[in-house]
Amino acid sequence: MDVQRPWTSITPVVDSIARKAIEDLNSRARVIPDLTADPYRQKELLRQMVRETIDSYGMAVSDATMVWLEEQEDHMGMRPVEWKPRRVDSHQVEARMAHDFAPLFFEEQGYNRALNSMGFIVADELYSRQRKNAAHTAWKGGGSWARVAHPGACAFCTLLASRGFDYTSRSTAGGGYSGAHFHDHCRCLVICRKRGHVELPESTIRAQKIYKKAQEEVGSTDPDVLLKAMRQVGDLSK
Ligand SMILES: [Zn+2]
């Protein structure tokens, strides 16, 4: 792998695991309406599937991230430290499912809507596993980490990415309040460094330009004002 450009080797891996997870989920979900037309029963079956998918594919993302971190270990001078999901993490998933599965009961195309939400819940959890493992490793090892924005990232992720290797604190090291869950549908990843040289990707340079221009325009550091300006300056969708 290219240790100075570590995002190039982890991005396709997490993307492909997430894609497989969603395909798997969708093919299993297709048979549920044949098994039962009862929305309460459907909801239980879907919830169980989401839990199982997150458990197994989440483990795959964690394992892949650990291998990727091991490949950088000599360059970074940091030992990979695995991040373990806690009870609060599964509570968050349960809360999202309780909310997002409501269309099952109230809407004509409710089942498809619920399936769609289910895919987002799973993908969010999978990408967050990579972020949490990488941030946790850097925090434990006394290094720093940077968020790498995915193409089409929202203004908030663009803002976070624009900070580069600014992150060193425990509160953002996977699982802390501000690191736990920023928003839905995030496919951002995290890279880390300590002593070895690590470049920032083109998307971060772009994020920094958007941030700088937005700040010049509004002359404010108020996040809401800044985010609004960044959406305009960077032509960001959300
Ligand atoms: Zn994001």
Descriptive labels:
single chain; mainly alpha; two-stranded antiparallel sheet; 2 strands; 4% strand; globular; binds zinc ion
List the helices and strands and how they pair.
Elements lengths: L6 H23 L2 H4 L3 H38 L10 H14 L2 H4 L3 H31 L3 E5 L6 H8 L14 H4 L8 E5 L8 H17 L4 H12 L4
Q: Average pLDDT value?
A: 90
Relative helix content: 55-70%
Whole-Å distance between the termini? 33 Å
Widest beta sheet: strand line-up: 1-2
InterPro entries: VG15
Pfam family, one: VG15
Could you describe the 3D structure shown?
There is one protein chain. The chain is mainly α and 238 residues long. The protein has one domain (7-234). The chain has helices at 7-29, 32-35, 39-76, 87-100, 103-106, 110-140, 155-162, 177-180, 202-218, 223-234, and strands at residues 144-148, 189-193. Strands 1-2 form a two-stranded antiparallel sheet. Helix 1 runs antiparallel to helix 3, helix 7 crosses helix 9 and helix 7 (155-162) crosses helix 10. It starts with 6 loop residues before the first helix and ends with a helix. Residues 175-181 have low confidence and may be disordered. Bound molecules: zinc ion. Zinc ion is lined by residues 150, 153, 157, 186, 188. The site of zinc ion has 5 residues, from loops.
